[in-house]
Write a structure and sequence with these properties.
single chain; 295 residues; mainly alpha; 0% strand
Length: 295
């Protein structure tokens, strides 16, 4: 059954973690009309920027029309040249991905910046990434932080997380563990999986917050349940040692196995040891040998 509310919920979670396709889908939904109708085409041809952007979205997604990135770009550009922020952002994404146009990071940055200067959070985040990686612009940590902060202050979770990383490492801003923890927690509370993992590490190490093993385990568990292998490994270690959670060898083995199945070599090694000794799992030398070999 079609459920726009559920779709919107998951697009928003993914978009806040920087997923480009989800950002686009969310933007399309926010500016949604009935695509492919004579009315939207007439409005777009008459120069209506919202209609042009919506028609671009329709061609990009193949929603009511045959999917055609070149047509999508054509309509995005018409709207973008009228100052339509969503179209500018979508055009930037098209240039970054090489969809409907020749891939061009500098063009992507140009359109991101136009949208970002209108306060479009996803464009601010993408522009921050461009400066962070030196894609289409000279690498500049301070500029990256500037754009991350603008998006972060609008609640964009991936920008909050990247800003936290900047404060943690001192890239583009003075190193400040307390600021790092603040921004990491804001992103983690929105379900950002990497922020949840890193916030767990922050509490485990006591960087910028009082050391608290129970809080560390709490955040690792949230990230682990989203499939983060490093969080699964750390949570397993906490269960094995009883740091922040009751000691439980079976739980430790469960989380090691989940991380091991994602290729985490340390988890594979620890799981092999558990299989060899029978800690938390039935003793099984063949399984131990299998996991040692993988590790």
């Amino acid at each position: 059954t079609q459920n726009w509310a559920e779709a919107l919920k998951w697009w928003e979670l993914a978009a806040n973690q920087g997923h480009a396709a989800a950002q686009h889908a969310l933007d399309c939904n926010q500016h949604r009309c009935v695509p492919g109708t004579q009315e939207i085409l007439e409005n777009a041809e008459a120069g209506n920027a919202d209609a042009q952007c919506n028609l671009g979205n329709a061609y990009y997604d193949g929603d009511g029309v045959t999917q055609n990135y070149t047509e999508a770009v054509k309509w995005y550009e018409l709207a973008a040249n009228q100052g339509h922020a969503s179209a500018q952002f979508n055009l930037g994404c098209a240039y970054a991905a090489g969809e409907g146009v020749t891939q061009n990071d500098a063009e992507a940055v140009k359109w991101y910046e136009l949208a970002a200067n209108q306060g479009f959070a996803a464009a601010q985040f993408n522009l921050g990434n461009a400066y962070n990686k030196g894609e289409g612009v000279p690498q500049n940590d301070a500029e990256a932080v500037k754009w991350y902060e603008l998006a972060a202050n609008q609640g964009f979770a991936s920008a909050q997380h990247n800003l936290a990383l900047a404060y943690y490492s001192g890239n583009g801003v003075p190193q400040n563990y307390a600021e790092a923890a603040k921004w990491c927690e804001l992103a983690a509370n929105q379900g950002h999986v990497d922020a949840q993992f890193n916030l767990g590490c922050t509490y485990d190490e006591g960087n910028g917050v009082p050391q608290n093993y129970a809080e560390a385990a709490k955040w690792w568990e949230l990230a682990a349940n989203q499939g983060n292998a490093d969080a699964q490994f750390n949570l397993a270690n906490a269960c094995y040692s009883g740091n922040g959670v009751p000691q439980n060898y079976a739980e430790a083995a469960k989380w090691w196995e989940l991380a091991a199945n994602q290729g985490n070599a340390d988890a594979q090694f620890n799981l092999a040891n558990a299989c060899y000794s029978g800690n938390g799992v039935p003793q099984n030398y063949a399984e131990a040998a299998k996991w040692w070999e993988l590790a």
